[in-house]
Amino acid sequence: MHKKHSSTEQCEMDMTPMIDVVFQLIIFFVVTLKMTQDRNEDIILEDGKHGVTLTQDNMPPTLLEIEVGKRGRISIHNATLTKSMLHSILKQRVNRLGPTFPVLIRADKRASHELVKDVMDICTASGIWKLSFVAIQEPKGK
Questions:
Q1: Mean per-residue pLDDT for 70-96?
Q2: What pTM value is reported for the model?
Q3: Looking at the domain covering 40-142, what would its CATH class be?
């Protein structure tokens, strides 16, 4: 026999899991939004009078910018990485997007050339072949 429910019984729903999910989504979007805006401002770029000028219009959406600081700090979106972490991130990205996405290396002009070479080697070991360097067209103060 079926159990009859009286019309006075109320259904209750626990909202705690839903609130937890909403807060996690908010945190995720705040963190990812902040990551897209972070850049290491301590990096002083080399002067480069020749080359393509990058604008928002000619930058592909799959572009990845790797920064190399003067003291050897490797970062993406201002998040410090070890060489093995960088390799892992690049391999995952190659698996997801293929090896044709462009990588910009934004290296401080005072950084060790050996470290910049190591970053280039990690990129090529990951299967990435579209590497470019960021420089400024005109020196500051002119």
A1: 91
A2: 0.64
A3: alpha beta
